[in-house]
Amino acid sequence: MERNEVELSVVIPVYNEEENVEPLQAALTKNLDALGRRYEIIYVDDGSRDRSFERLRVIASRSPQTRIVRFGRNHGQTAALAAGITRARGEVIVIMDADLQNDPADIARLLAKMAEGYDVVSGWRRKRKDPWLTRRLPSALANRLIAMMTGVELHDFGCMLKAYRAGIVQRLHLYGEMHRFLPALAAHEGARISEIVVTHHPRRAGKSKYGLGRTTRVLLDLMVVKFLGGYISRPIHLFGGFGLLCCAGGVLAGAVTLYEKLVLNIWVHRNPLILLGVFLFLLGVQCILMGLLAELLLRTYHESQNKPIYTVAETVNFEKVDNE
Question: N or C, fewer C-beta in 10 Å, the chain?
């Protein structure tokens, strides 16, 4: 099938889910056939060490709508999603987990909400079937922090079940562990985002690949997303603003040191404020210079590759002018 013949693509990363892929395929085909849309299912085997790929190969041999991408080793969920999204031919791309905790029946509800004019519809596991201390509590705190930092008000950034318009999500560049921030990255592109409550099932087979160890990586990636969303086109505002603040602190510390010397007769070598003042001033100068270097790199990037500094969603009546 060509791209314009596929209306819906379902992208599913798989890592050691041999017991789940066949029940998932059965549930998917049942619900997708009921939609009456031309669809494809793309499984991305992220270097599984069990028999997941062998079972996926059997599934693909029976289902012409099913496609498989296999990694030679484990690259992580973000890389698996990027591989599937890049190869998807549908106008709408739905992503979901392979562990049977997402319900394929909710895909129809995602598409119905998207038909109201949204570009991204995210699932919300309001009644989540996971341990409270190790999964639900850290997730709730992370969701609140991500919403505050990005300005995208979603309850459940970690829910894998989401629907995207292909024109939006295929423009995004994924790396690291950025998959959980896809709605925020899409919002930076001007996407209209909504959220619906979805069903969440307890895991029945296999082992969870998530844990508290990801918390640090989430926080670091969140800093990157905040920078990309707020300062990627004007890095001098971030580095320069912080640098000016440090310089002002250094000047203030120096002024206090001078006042104490002239008025209180406290010698400089006995006053630690002078060291703080020098440190803050030098740090401020370095930050300002870093901001200037970032501005030069940004301009080199855009001008050398002729990269635009904006994205166009659509145009009206420009085609006629271009053809004249």
Answer: C
The per-residue pLDDT for 65 is 93
| Residue type (1 letter), 176 | G
Give the separation between CA 92 and CA 86, rounded to whole angstroms. Answer: 13
Instruction: Please list, in sequence order, all residues whose beta carbon lies within 8 angstroms of the beta carbon of residue 17, skipping any fewer than 6 positions away.
Output: 24, 48, 50, 52, 98, 99, 205, 206
Rounded Cα gap, residues 218 and 181, in angstroms: 9
Q: For residue 289, what are its two tokens? A: 């210079």
CB atoms within 10 A of CB 273: 18
Q: Which residue has the higher pLDDT, 179 or 197?
A: 197
For the chain, how far is it from start to end, CA to CA, in angstroms? 34
Q: What is the pLDDT of residue 286?
A: 94
Phi, psi of 216 (to 5 degrees): -60, -45
* Contact yes or no for 154/193 (Cβ under 8 A): yes
Name the percent of the chain lying above pLDDT 90. 48
- Average of per-residue pLDDT across 219-238: 75
How far apart (Å, rounded) are the C-alpha atoms in residues 235 and 227?
8
Q: What are the structure tokens assigned to 220, written together?
A: 């670091």
Q: Which residues, in sequence order, are CB contacts of 85 under 8 Å at separation 6+?
A: 11, 93, 95, 169, 170, 174
Residue 79 has pLDDT above 70, yes or no: yes
pTM, entire model: 0.74
Task: Report which DSSP code applies to 10.
Answer: E
DSSP β-bridge partners for residue 45:
14, 70
What token pair was written down for 108?
A: 């129809």
The dihedral formed by the CA atoms of 307, 308, 311 and 315, expressed in degrees to the nearest 10: -120
By C-alpha distance, which of 161, 181, 207 is closest to 15?
A: 207
Taking residues 174-192, report their average pLDDT: 84
CB 89 within 8 A of CB 9: yes
